[in-house]
Structures are given as structure tokens and as C-alpha cells.
Amino acid sequence: MRLRGSTKSTVALLTALVFMLSMVCYLPLAQATNEGLTPEILEQASKITNQGDKTVLDTVYEANTGETPPPDNFEETILERTFNLNNFQPMEVPGPAELTISDVTTSSFKVSWPEAAGASEYKVTVSNTTGGVTTKVVDGVSTENPEYLVQGLESSYRYDIVVEAMGGSWAEGVSSLKGLVVTTASNTLVLKPGAPGTNGNYTFEPLANWNSDNVYEQFYTYQSDINIANDHFFWYIKKGLNNGLPAIKGNIRAFRLFNLSDKEEVELNYGTDEDFANVKENPNQWTQPTTINTGDFIVCCYSIPSGTCFSFEINLAKKLKPGKQYEITLDPQFRTAGNSPQYLNKVYHFKFTTAGIQDNDPPTWQDGAALSADGISESELTLTWPEAIDESGVDKYIITVSKEGGIVKTAETISPSYEFTDLDSNTEYEFSVQAIDIAKNVNEPLVATFTTAAWVPQWPEDASLSISNLYPTELVINWPEVADKTDFAEYRLYVDGVEEARLANQTYYELGGLNAGHKYSLKVVPYNIPGFAGAALETIVVTPGGGGLVFNFAPQATDKGESGYYYHYELVYPVDLDNLVLTWNFGNGLDKNLRQNLECIRLVEKASGKQINLDLGTEP
Questions:
Q1: Which residue(s) pair with 192 in the sheet?
Q2: Residue 343 carries which DSSP code?
Q3: Of 150, 328, 352, which is closest to residue 252 (Cα–Cα)?
Q4: CA atoms of 536 and 275, how far apart (whole Å)
Q5: Are 28 and 37 in contact, with CB atoms under 8 Å apart?
Q6: pTM of the model
Q7: Is the distance from CB of 444 to CB of 397 less than 8 angstroms?
Q8: Within 10 A of 116 (CB to CB), how many other CB atoms are there?
Q9: pLDDT tens digit string along 351-406?
Q10: How far is residue 494 CA from its own chain's centroid?
């Protein structure tokens, strides 16, 4: 566009234009508090200063004359009559309040913050999360000063910081500030994408693109969508010379998993120390086995051309959902072994997206798959089944429990087993299990019925039979009451396996008509009203009188003493089992007690307590 008019009017117009520009630039200076200033005005003032006065005035000159560039003295003349735009410093737009971290050491740091309007004091919380456990090293400590010194920390650990303004807020109503810090370490390492031995000693797969970093964090994004069923994540680290096992356990607990789409942390199972019970170290060096499964992690130790390497894999197939964005974080305590370990010393972020699943086929059961139940009691049983098969991966199993009258319970699990603890006694239940894959396809159920055990009377702890008033021909048997008499019916007493009596409320029994010097087996069994028996209390007793027998042994035997109703002898020398003969001689020869005496001889395997049957022959 060309401006038409006289030279005087042109100069006047230029002067007015520059004056208006000067007012635009001057406005932020006059309004130091930013009151009444819009972001557009501040942006325009900043733009004029950044571009310099020359661009603005060249445009004005060309619009009026059609010539470019203007004379050398044109800008100076105009600017001297107004003011020099180059000397203008625009007001900065205030940013959001942030925490400031300083004086970071291996065991401490200082955190400070701008004062919040109206705040009477500040509450400071500092925490660390390792292995799924969050520990607060500063737990809501109050301070009136806008700074706090945190001490007593671990080297190369991540600490999350929250500062709350009590009774006040920062700009835009913000009442709490958050940040993180990583304490320092003497030796550090850097993880790079690549297979082991291809890009240094510390690598990870699949390949990922570096996004950005800062003092305490490193950000990567995996290059392609992750297939839940088939893709695996690995981190590799060169093996140190000593202390391999403590480093491995600590490294596992440095991993965390976040579902960014649903804004939640996904719980990981970090295993237990018992998972490493069979690891051999020589003297402190991991030698075998080569693979350990611990919780959701798989740790392998194997050789590479440049030495020995550990790999860490997270089994995420059952943790991830299709079409979601996730992030694995690896905290700074991840380290090598050895006497001078190297630490990651940064929080590494690995972001990825799971692929959408195009799967219309439900999971399948292997041939012969069936439900089974173990540990059946009056109220409990453990239901188990074989794992279902699915191309995209089984997400979970749905269990439905029914009894007469309808469904009484539903449950979900990712494992092929489930423990029930609140069932009714002596009740038939129908159990149904279905598998659901990641694409939400559901298969045909496995169905079976199981009946819980009937309630039976239980003895109190350490219950036993006792004998009183023991005479050659009579005695009294005593026992405690059952612990719970709900539905209790009676006690049944057995003598040498033959029922002797049934007693409803009595906890003793006078047994008569016995033979002197005779052994008797006694048993008391509690029964409930439906007729189900509890455990038996048993004992043996020998009535006094009749005189005891004394044996002389050949081969030689040592008398090992007496306990209860037993005498113990032990052969002195090893015997030839093929030619071993034991003989008992009775002075009266073949009398009426022969059969009874033979029945008193038993052969028992000492280790197992199992009785070996003997052929007693037939009476002559």
C-alpha cells in the first residue's frame, strides 16, 4: 500500500506512527505491575525490541516513498526526535512458581521456593519409592522460611519433593509445588540403546529415540508400538567382579511402571530373597544358575565377547492393555557390582504405546483341560486349572461360583488358581472358569462341581486321653470336651477296635472286666449330628499284675530303657538280614496262649513307622 500526500504530511504521519509505537513500548514500563496489560501487548513490545527499530522504520519509509532502503540518516533522525528503541527492555511475563534445588551432595540437598501470597507456613514432604515401598524421609515438616535443608539421604537415590503453602497460594491458585532431585554419586554410567556389547557396556532394547534430558532425568521413546504378547524389554549391564547378588536385587527394585493413559502406577511384583536362594557366588561372584525368575522379573547371567553380562527383563504381558501409553522408569540407584560401582545417577524414562489388538478369536483350552480342587475342608478349597492359550495374550480369568439358588460369588485372577476361604460346610458348589484375552474375547468355560467337607467336631489343642484308677481288671478313661459343641452329637469309645460305648455329655468312662497284665488299645472319636467323625484320640495301656517276662537275647542286645508301656532293646552288632532269626521261648510250651503270644509280635520299619505284616500260620 502507498500513502499519498505532501512531504510535510508524510513526515507528520511518520512522527505520529513512531510516537504510537513508543507508547506501545513505553506502556509496560509505566505499568510495572502488569496491571491492565494483555499478553498481546507484552508480546508486541517484545517483538519490536527483538526485531530492532530498523525493520519497523524501513517498512514505514517504503510505504511512503516506494523506495528501499531509506537514507542512512533516516532512522537516526526519526529516533532522535522520539527515543531509541534499542534501549528498551520489555517486562518479562512472570512464569509459574517452581522449586529450586541447590547444594546437592551424596546425602543432602537444599530446596527453596518463592513466597506464596497469604501463606502462614509451608509443609515439606520428601519421599523415595523403591521396590514398590514409599519411605518418607521428611514427613510433612512445617517451616516459616521458604527453604529447607534435607539431610541423611542415600547416595544416587531419587527423592520426590512436595511443598504445600498453608493458608495461601502461588499464582493461579497453586497451593503446592512438586519436584524431584537425585543425590550425587562418585562414579556414574550412561545407558544407551542397543544389544549387549554393541553400544558400550550398558544398553537396552528395543531401540528407542532420545527425547530430552535435564540435570536429573533422561527421556526416551520407543520407536514403534509395542506388541503386548511378543515384544520384550531388556536392560543390560556389565558384570562387576564382586558383590554381584546385592547389586542385582537392588537393581530389580529400581524399576517402576506407569499407565500414562489412565494416570496410574501399575503395581509390580519384585519377588523375594528366597528366589535367589540357589544362586552360587565364588566367593562373592554370581556363578550359577544362569536364570532367575523373581516376581515379574527375569534376570540372566551370561557371557558376551567383552565379558559377562546381566540382563533384566520385566514380564509385562499381563500388566499392559492395548492402545495405551505407558512409561517405565529406571531410578538412579541402578548400578554395576564390584568394589567401585558405577551408578545410573539419573531417572531414565522409557515411554511407549501398546499396539491396538486386532483379535476376534477367544482363548482356547488345551485338550483335556479341567478344573481340580485341592485342600478341601469345611470352608476352604483351592481351585486350579491349566493356562489358556491365546495369540494376543490372556488378560485374566473370571471365576463364577454357584450353589443351589444361584450365583454366590464371582472373582478375577491373572493366575491359573484361586483360593476360596468362606464356603459353607458339606455343600456342593459349581465352579466355572472363563479366560478373557487382551482384546476382551471370552472363551467357553471349564465347569466342575465340588463338595466341601462336613463340619466335624474339633479337639482343643494338645488334647489327649488319660488313664486314672488303673487296676488289674479295671480303669477309668478321661478326655477333654470338644472345642465347639455346635451340632455335636456324642463320643464313641473303642477298645481294641471294638465299639464299647456312646456318651453324649460324659468325658470319662469306667472300663471293667479286663485281664491283668494285658495291653489294651483305647480310642475316643467325636461325632456330629449328621454322623461325621472328627479326629480320634488314642492311647494304649497295660493293666498291672501277671508278672513281667524277662528275655535273654542272642544275638547280644543292649537294654535301651523303658518309656510308657514299652521296653526298648537294640542289637549290638550289625546283622545278616538273609540269615537273621529271632526266637522267643516260653516254658509252658504250646498252651492256650500261643496264638495270643504270636499276635503280640510285630515287625515295624523304624524310619517310617510302617508295620510289616507277618504270617502267623495256623493253629496245630
A1: 203
A2: B
A3: 328
A4: 40
A5: yes
A6: 0.51
A7: no
A8: 23
A9: 999 987 677 889 999 999 999 999 988 889 999 999 999 877 788 999 999 998 79
A10: 53
